[in-house]
Amino acid sequence: MKYERFVARFIPLAFVACLAACGGTGGSNNPNPTPTPTPTPGKVTVTCPARVHVGVDPKVVTMAQTSYQCTASEAVTWSVSDASLAAIGSTGIITPTSNPVSDSASVTVTATPTSGNDTAGTATVKVVDWIAYNQFARDAQNNSIVYNRIINADGNGGATVLTDGSAFPTWLPDHLSLISEPDSKDSEFEIFTTGGGANDGKVISTIHIPSVSGASGFTVSPDGKTVLFRAMNPTTRGFGYYTIHVDGTGLVGPLYEAAPVLGGSEILIGKPHWSPDGKRIVHVRLTFTGTGGQTTEIWTMNADGSNALQVTSDGGTDNDPAYLNANTIIFDGSQGICTIPTAGGAETFLVNGLIPTPAPSGTWFAYLTSSGTVRAMQANGAGDHLVDSGSNPSW
Questions:
Q1: What is the pTM for the complete model shown?
Q2: Which of 175, 183, 250, 332 could cross-link with 245 by S-S, CB 3.0 to 4.6 Å?
């Protein structure tokens, strides 16, 4: 019995001593435990296009594999520093303004994290309003050289030389890349970038078009996938309109061919243009009259060549048509540069000039003067101003 009482007193004391030596009921035996570290805040990484162009559909992606999409390293909310220049959606797509901008216009895009302690990230995006055009010069041997150049539509900021040896630049729908015709190659086109710095003028692709000759007047569909052009059918010797994918595959045509015949023959001339929705094509047909004269009139047709509609019928010389917007065609005629409804009707005179080329917004256009300068003005006739000396403008 004495032994049992001794054991009963001894065991609790030993147990308490063990707990004390082990740091209590499961705690650390370190008298000054290290606290759990708090994560160091980081910064959101933001990637945006270097440039966006006024009035352009921000979702267009072309062969240059570019779009107006910003991305972030985590879930964020987006904002821009100047809503008069551009807006940005919840998915990071930038929509630039439709109003003209100066050469120095830019916005700061901010990506603010939706959770956590990371700080917001930013990127600077230049909002540009460029006109592409040609200038001619002579080398040391007095040989003529043609350059593709770009300049801000207000004529400020200086021109950037992109390439030499090719002509008739035309913007792809994203306005970050151009298509042009090599000066010394038949039935071939190049696509090159205007990406800034070392990328300016970089040729992405050179496409040779098979089975035709004399291809010219290249223009790209609104979705950036198809090139429309005029070429000669080697079999019939007639000029027609053809399409081909921007990667050089899928030649289709002729969509419409004016086979030459004696007496009243018809020839397709100039550069065709797509409607804003890509469903119609506006073009020029030259007809020789039985008295030895000729007329050039504006026509439209479906993108597959069907359902042709004559737009002008004044017996004059109407050339270089393009869609100013879905309901209006702009062209140069006997009077000068005019507009006319797409279904035909009364012509509205705007200015003396040639080769009108609409801005993406449809509210401005550039044109060539008889003195060899490129000018720009609003479609309502206001704001006429000098851009630079040159030819073959594309806005």
A1: 0.81
A2: 250
